[in-house]
Amino acid sequence: MKRSTISKSLLLGMALLLATGAFAANKGSLQVQDPVTVIGKQLPAGDYQLKWDGKGPNVELSILKGNKVVATVPARLVDINQSASSDAAVVRKNEDGSRSLSEIRFSGKKYALAIGEEAATADTGESTGK
User: Fold this and answer.
1) pTM of the predicted model over 0.85
2) Considering only CA atoms, which of 93, 76, 74 is closest in space to residue 127?
3) Domain that residue 85 falls in
């Protein structure tokens, strides 16, 4: 009986640990050096927190400044060939001279968040649910 109780406790503990790990993987940070546009919304330079929801490659990304959500956009989790050496915002320069956020990479991770047109055209064969 005691062995059964210990096994159940270990199983419950592992489930909680995995659930916590999965939740923590859906967070990140973003530092913007210059103002950028995110699907029509202007983000001033500064530090932001990121949270995303979704189980598949398509997720909903919330960009927060402090505790306030400043933008919510569709995004796509995509695999990248090599782990990013640091957190990075990939910015596209538009024809009109403005700058748009197109991808967010995370230090030590082999996935990125593609935003906007990049999310729609990202390779679906290697997408991840991280």
Assistant:
1) no
2) 76
3) 27-126
